[in-house]
Amino acid sequence: MEEKREKLIFYALFIIICYFALIWYMPYMDPDEARYVEIPREMIQLRHYIIPYLNYTVYLEKPPLYYWMNILALKIFGFNDFAGRFWTVTISLIGIFLNYKFAKKIINQKTAFWSSLILASSMYYFIIGRLNLIDMTNAFFITMSTYSGYLYLKTNKKYFVYLMYIGMAFGFLSKALIGIIFPFAILFLWSIFTKQFKSFFRLISPIGIILLLALCLPWIYMAGQQVSDFYYYFFLKQEFLRYLEPLEHTQPIWTFIPVVIFGFLPWTLFIFSMIKAYKISKFKEIQKDDLIFLLTFGGFIFVFYSLSQSKLVTYVAPLFFPLSIVLGNLFSNIENIDKKDKYIHLSVFGIFFVALIGFCFIQNVYMGLEKWFILITPPAIILILLGILPFVVKNTTKTFLSIFFGMMIFYNLSIFPTEAYTIYYKTTKPVALFVDKIYKKGDILGQYKLYRQSFNYYTQKRTIQIDSVNELGFGRSHLSPKEQEKWFPNIEQFKKVWDSDKRVILLIKTKEIPKFAYRHYYVLLKEPYFSIISNKGQID
Predict the structure, then answer these.
(1) What's the confidence (pLDDT) of residue 482?
(2) Burial group, residue 536, by CB count within 10 angstroms (0-12, 13-18, 19+)
(3) Which of 9, 96, 312, 454 has the lowest tally of Cβ within 10 angstroms?
(4) Which residue in 81, 86, 78, 79 sits closest to 129, CA to CA?
(5) 30 DSSP β-pair partners
(6) Which residues have C-beta within 8 Å of that of residue 62, sequence separation ≥ 6?
(7) Among candidates 298, 378, 331, which has minimal Cα distance to 124?
């Protein structure tokens, strides 16, 4: 027993180290990562903690819980590239622990162990679980709430139903109505599929409803008091019209099929071994109701977002929790790796290796060949070792454990070439830090025909949006006509500012410089993707 405990502690510490390792190394990427750290920064600066602000205008696409969490992190750790990712990593790790405890409770410890390793090392969960995004936090609260509701129906222990409502409240405060709708919808469908319809109504708890309202209504009321069209925009437009109408992020209905398949890499490569394990075990270790619950949970998330007119890869994060338990049970019953899977595994990792090496020959904008080879050599070696592992290690359990360790190491080593490649086009940090050095009081900062949230965050200043509104349309509509012209001018309106005596510093895409609207300009910094130009040539 003591040996098992020490083994679990070892794996837990390894996962924690791998998830926190190097989260400070990469700058916040545009648009989402930078947005979700810039909003808390502005809320701190403006001392407005009820209504989120982006570029100092009202931004109500999401509730404020995640922003509040990041405000706390920024105040504790400071304005750096670690703080904004702290809570996502922490929540992701708690999510792995939650999944372990749930799988152990409804199935057994062996399934719980394997499902935890599969979840932690799956490509999707590891990547999304380390980025400054709302989705993992929301996925955790949806999972916590749904699991709690299900355990209440199984055990009739009251604290589970209260945890369900608390989870729904935090789910709402992190990403609105889906935090409430999803747990109820999943458990309702489960009650239908298992012919236990009457049991669903046991989830209606007066105390739970009071907890939910007590946690959610204060913010809803205060936001409605401060923004006149809050209820229309936040509930109707963002919650319903965004789902029903192709407002943004439109993708085909099959979008999430490859997301799930590739998201569960490398474990989805062992398809034939899983089929054999299923034929042997037939999920006998899982009670029928529990299996239906896990599949209903994952299936509902998949179908719901597949039918949505708005699709983003991060939306389906909740389904990785229940499906990892199903996969964990299959892997716990694999006795021998199928020969076909070994060759599939080798082929896929071989393709990754060729892509990693070959990529440097088709890109020559961001870094030299020599630097690229230095950065990609360590992860490339790991890819080779991972590819041949099933042929070298004969013991199935040791093979899977080696793949787990290898993937976790590979992910972290891959951060170095990823940062080197994305630094110039997925973030404006290099040019923003340059501007921060030359900026003097009275200078005007602007962004020409684009909006990059990272530029605001790393300069810690408001910028004028020239001929660009983007996601700030709602906030712009709440400004006076005079403020709209000042902060969101078109090309003609901004010309008088450009021709003024004040120094104007603009962020611009490098390829747009030759097409710049005004004749006179000076290039202060030229990088491969973003550059800095000004109406004044000298920097004192």
Answers:
(1) 94
(2) middle
(3) 9
(4) 86
(5) none
(6) 52, 134, 174, 175, 176
(7) 298
- Residue position matching structure tokens 């990892």: 324
Judged by DSSP in three states, 365 sits in coil
**pLDDT at residue 318 greater than cutoff 90:** yes
CA–CA separation, 332 and 5 (whole Å): 18
| Preceding amide of 318 cis, omega within 30 | no
Cα distance between residue 291 and residue 312, in whole Å: 27
> Which element (helix H / strand E) includes 465?
strand 464-466
**How many angstroms separate the CA atoms of 451 and 468, rounded?**
7
- Cα–Cα distance measured from residue 487 to residue 484, given in angstroms and rounded to the nearest whole number: 5
Q: How many C-beta atoms lie closer than 10 Å to residue 111's C-beta?
A: 24
At 2, the pLDDT band (50, 70, 90 cuts) reads low
Instruction: pLDDT band for 370, please (50, 70, 90 cuts).
Output: confident
- Which DSSP symbol is given to 27? P
Model confidence over 428-461: pLDDT tens digits?
999 999 999 999 999 999 999 999 999 999 999 9
User: Which backbone phi and psi does 534 adopt, to 5 degrees?
Assistant: -145, 160
> Smallest Cα–Cα separation from 10: which of 164, 147, 117?
117
Q: Count CA within 13 A, CB hemisphere, residue 123.
A: 15
Chain mean pLDDT for the chain: 92
Nearest Cα to 472, choosing from 490, 488, 461, 454?
Answer: 488
pLDDT greater than 60 at residue 215:
yes
The pLDDT, as a whole number, for residue 250 is 65
Q: Which CA distances in Å does 31 have to 88, 451, 517?
A: 17, 9, 25
How far apart, in whole angstroms, are the C-alpha atoms of residue 511 and residue 508? 8
- Determine the pLDDT at residue 246: 57
Tokens 């389904």 label which residue?
319
Cα separation of 120 and 100, whole Å?
A: 11
Kindly report whether the global pTM for this prediction surpasses the value 0.70. yes
Distance, in Å, from the CA atom of 451 to the CA atom of 55, rounded to the nearest integer, reads 10
> Which one, of 422, 482, 70, 106, lies nearest residue 294 by Cα?
106
Residue type present at position 277? A
